[in-house]
Amino acid sequence: MKQEILDYLRDYDGEEVRIMEVCGTHTASISHTGIRKLLSPKIKLISGPGCPVCVTVTSYIDRCIEIAKMEEHVLVSFGDMLRVPGSKGSLRDAGADGAKVQMVYSPLDTLKLCEKHPETTYVFAAVGFETTTPIYAVLLQKAEEKKITNLKLLTSLKVMPPVISWVCENQHNVDGFLAPGHVSVITGSELFVPLAQRFDLPFVVSGFEAEELLASIYALVRLKGQGKVMNLYPSVVTKEGNTEAQALVNRYFEPGAATWRGMGSIPDSGMYLRPDYEKYDMGSRALDQDNVHNKACQCAKVLTGQIESKECPLFGTVCTVEHPQGACMVSGEGACFTALTSEA
User: Fold this and answer.
1) pLDDT class for 331, splitting at 50, 70, 90?
2) pTM for the structure as a whole
3) E strands in the chain
4) d(CA 81, CA 51)
């Protein structure tokens, strides 16, 4: 069957099929495995808004920098966020100028910092999709249990269905979606059924190995024009998802409008702390501006599938991994980062 799939995808000569992946890990896997070279020119793979770092607006980065410069405050973050350009610079730049920025590998590491330095307020830059939101809920749960009062979150948490709907309504150039595997572990594959039926588009939940991706692409080509959902990652994804994680998230967070890089404000696409837990919030709801530092940056068009990374005039010249001009060149899951590094 494997050879049959390869032959079919290589020799396909029907109507053009444009498939969007909305998962940064899929973007990276597709680039690093060279899958595009195995496909017919009639099968186009396009990247979408699947990297949480990439879709975060500049006002969020600017607010992180402001916090890092405040007395008795430390901004805590994952490493990739430190390099994302804000309107005037990055957290890495601010750290070099004396701002207090602490990198961690897990949000739960912040609890140790809070306990060790109770006089300091630690603000975690909580960025992510449905995959990572549960860990922030666990962080808050443990902070409550330990009666920690010097922890806060600055959230840029987003959910997938509203932005996929935005793409379908505004781009009209997608024939099917590689549904995000990691997100689906939490949400379940049934999450995509309403979208599939509304837009008459197929969704295939895929794993991340080359064989899994090829099988999913094959299924999407065959399902073109059909509003169906297929789960080809059944070893870890169920219809209903992780209901315990969903319940924990719903305890601490509620949906609200969120601004996405290049797409503006999308209703109910963000997750914010509920009123009962606003004492942990550092002003997340007001972050809706995207004043791009380099006006020639085309990240917005890359994220919405309008252009490929290589079509940006800055790609690989002015904008590089060492000197990123936009968020898509920062994260290991960003379309521009993976496109450039896969060439190396």
Assistant:
1) confident
2) 0.90
3) 17-21, 43-47, 73-77, 101-103, 121-128, 151-158, 176-179, 203-205, 229-231, 253-260, 264-273
4) 12
